[in-house]
Amino acid sequence: MFHPFSIPSPDPAWAKFQLGPLTIHTYALCILAGIIAAVLITSSRLHRRGAPRGVVIDILIWAVPLGLVGARFYHVFTHTGDYFYPGANLWNVFAIWDGGNALYGSLLGGAVGALIGCRRAGIRFWSFADALAPGLLVAQSLGRFGNYFNHELFGLPTTLPWGLQIESTNPKFPPGLPAGTLFHPLFLYEILWNLTGVAIILILERRLNLRWGRAFATYLIWYGIGRSWLEAIRIDPTSDGFLGIPANDWASFTAIAAGIVLLVIQTRRHPDTEPDPYLPGHPPRTANNSSVRESDRVPTSESGNRA
Length: 307
What we know:
It is a multi-pass membrane protein. 51% of the residues lie in helices and 5% in strands. By secondary structure, it is mostly helical.
């Protein structure tokens, strides 16, 4: 018997449904909802800083596809035993609807896409990254609901009343444990951690100058800390590792270190200035070609600080 206050896993039938000839996967809908939320939040924040409306779409046209590709291939190549074995169906490498889209892979692929998109749109990459930071955490929170519907991303057994119910027939259910065992709901922990991170970034932005990549650095540090803890108590199939440490933990440590380095460097380089969101040589558009109103623009620093 499960604890009366434990979290039930949804009916497996909810993981997908038919819409005419199409099979719609709930996991994909959660990812799509996250992308839409990130677009809306980032677009609003970047516009308030002086960029034209719609420019985020121009950037994400590059960032989202490359982010999805990076997410999938990072997962596959850190879980090689799940995809490469005698008799394996190699088409499963591309089955993103079954779950297995690694956040750190999406960051790497998405960063490459964002660099391309920002360059083509004439937008400063760090201005875009700072505007994206809270939206990225919201997107990740929505995406984690997909793990819930797929009955995955759970942690060590627990007797806590909010333990997650996982059916003993689930292929990820640890052997040797009795039916009715509850597990830490890591998907829920990460959702709460991410939403707390959103609040922290927004509060710090009111008190500190989190520009020039510093808001994104805060995101990297916050998410890296939370993810490293979650990976430490995760028992459903984890990533391949090195020196006995899973790849996702190494990626978390790297994210924390990268965030600290970025924060220190950008604070020394730009302690008080606020960047023009445009790259040098890309002046603000006029009212005849998708401009921003002067009243919406953020005061910029001296021209010497725009490089």
